[in-house]
Every structure is written in C-alpha cells, then in structure tokens.
Predict the structure.
Amino acid sequence: MDFATIIGLIIAFAAVLGGYTLEGGTIDAVFLLAPILIVVGGTLGATMITTSFDTVMRVPSFLKLALFGKTRPFIPATEVIVMLADKARREGILGLEKLIPELPDSFFRKAVRLLVDGTEITALREVMETEITYLEERHKRGIIFFQKAGGFAPTLGILGTVLGLVQTLANTSDAAHMATAIAGAFVATLWGVGLANLFFLPVSDKLKMRHDEEMSYHELIMEGVIAIQSGENPRSIRVRLQSFIAPHHRISED
C-alpha cells in the first residue's frame, strides 16, 4: 500500500472539509446530487471521448497502481544481477537457466531467458527496448486519462454553476429561496475544482512517478543483463547499476 498517496488524499479532503465546517458550513450543503452528477458524469463522459474504451476499462487498475503500488526493488534487483554475473563467470551463462523461475518479475525472467538462449547483444537490447517502449505507451494512457479529467472537471464545474444560476434566475419570485439556490449553484464549481486539484491531477502525477520508477527499474535490468552477456566483472556491474540508485541507498564496497 502506498501510504503517501492514501494519507495525502485523506489530509487534502479533510483540510478542505474541515476548514469549511470551521467557517460554519454544513457538509450536507456540499453533497448535492445535481452538482455531483454534472461534474463527475460530465468529466467521465468528456474524458472517455478522448480515449479508447479499453483504457476506460483499465481505470480501476490505474487507480490500484496509484493507491497501492509498491516501490520497485532496485537494490535487491542489483544484488540478483551481481549474483547472476558471478554464477555466469563460474558456471557459464547456461548455468543461469535453472534460476529463471526464481526471478521476481516477468521482464527480468524474459531478459535472462534471452541471455541463456544466446541472443546477441544488439538483438537483446532491441528486444528489451521494444518491451520498454510498449510498456511506456500503456502507462501513458493512464497518466493522460487523469490529466484530461483534471482539465475537464473545473470546466464542468463552471458549466454546472451556470446551469444552476440559469435555473435560479428564471425563478426570482422568492428572494430567500433564490439566495439558497445561488449558493447551491456554486457547489458545482467547488466539486469541479476540488476533484481536479485533490484527486485527478495528483493521481496523474503519482502514475507518472510510478512510470518513471518502472522505466528506470527495467533499464537497470536491461543494462545488467547486457553486462553479463558482455562478460563484465560482477564488481564492475554493481558499480554501473548503482547509478540507478539514490546515493544514500547505495551499498558501500568498503
């Protein structure tokens, strides 16, 4: 579970609603069905127009990645690659075949399988880079989906407010009721701006962070496997791969 995302969302919404209630507002006045329907439904519909139905069906998986995604294990992966390099020097590359099922993810297993199969370095790099490119395209769909939703939501909020004001001004016989209706009309703007800045755009940025992290992780694996194929010394491989790791997390060679 990504506690930063969960706690951040809780703090953001609690701060807004808490500040509103401290000013004397009531929660019931914010949770009005009509503004929520206009903003949420309109935003979802407008965003769906810009993308494919397959992307829309994958929205739950994007949310799961943003809310519960785990940090990629750069240091353990580096140590596994160094171990594989040491074993390859002692037993040959074919000796790595029995370790493939124990590797932590499918990309890692595929890379080592290509290595064991004797794939030439240039071809190995091309296959891995193609895999990374298609993975990047899939990730961008989720990032762009929430970015667009964050752009549409405030506009839909304004649209909801305008519709509310039109309805209010068309019935001006009761001044007291009109004042309440005007206040209710602006709830749509609140929902549009709130959802954009407290949910859609933060989720998009979190997915971008996850994407950058996964790209670096896969590049680490690719460079490590290619280094093994080139017959580099395990110590040299560790030094090279530590460039993917923040300095304060690197394992000292001393």
Summary: The mean pLDDT is 88.
